[in-house]
């Protein structure tokens, strides 16, 4: 593995760099919370060769949003569904914007 390849992982939001313990510590939560949101289908951590869960920065951001909702009193399952729907909405809005940019005649302003 080259140094350039190793350094590129530092910028990769999807690289599973964090162990469960480190992820829980960073989020101020417990490993049980991370397991619960995994079981609810919100995140699916990669597994190391030894079978340990590994989380990416993207997954930690998603988990942090779920934790915010849970801290506000939302049940874990409902919080996970809300975060999934928020993520889907954001993606749909991005796709719509890209589509608008492709079909908008040059020189016209947004309506």
Shape: globular
Kindly report how far apart the N and C termini lie.
50 Å
Described by strand count, sense and barrel closure, the largest sheet is:
3 strands, antiparallel
Task: Write down the domain tally.
Answer: 1
Task: Extract low-pLDDT stretches.
Answer: none
- At the fold tier of CATH, the topology name is Multidrug-efflux Transporter Regulator, Chain: A, Domain 2
- Helix segment tally: 5
Total beta strands = 3
Mean pLDDT: 89
> What structural class do the secondary elements suggest?
mainly alpha
**Percent range of helical residues:** 55-70%
Q: What is the topology, as strand order, of the major beta sheet?
A: 1-3-2
Order of helices and strands: HEHHEEHH
The portion of residues forming beta strands comes to 5-15%
Top-tier CATH class: Mainly Alpha
Radius of gyration: 18 Å
Q: Which architecture per CATH?
A: Orthogonal Bundle
């Amino acid at each position: 593995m080259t140094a350039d390849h190793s350094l590129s992982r530092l910028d990769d939001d999807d690289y599973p760099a964090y162990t469960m313990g480190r992820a829980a510590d960073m989020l101020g939560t417990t490993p049980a919370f991370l397991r619960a949101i995994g079981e609810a289908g919100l995140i699916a951590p990669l597994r190391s060769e030894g079978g340990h869960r590994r989380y990416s920065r993207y997954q930690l951001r998603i988990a942090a949003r779920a934790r915010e909702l849970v801290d506000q009193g939302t049940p874990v399952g409902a919080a996970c569904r809300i975060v999934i729907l928020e993520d889907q909405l954001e993606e749909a809005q991005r796709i719509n914007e890209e589509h608008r940019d492709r079909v908008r005649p040059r020189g016209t302003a947004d309506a």
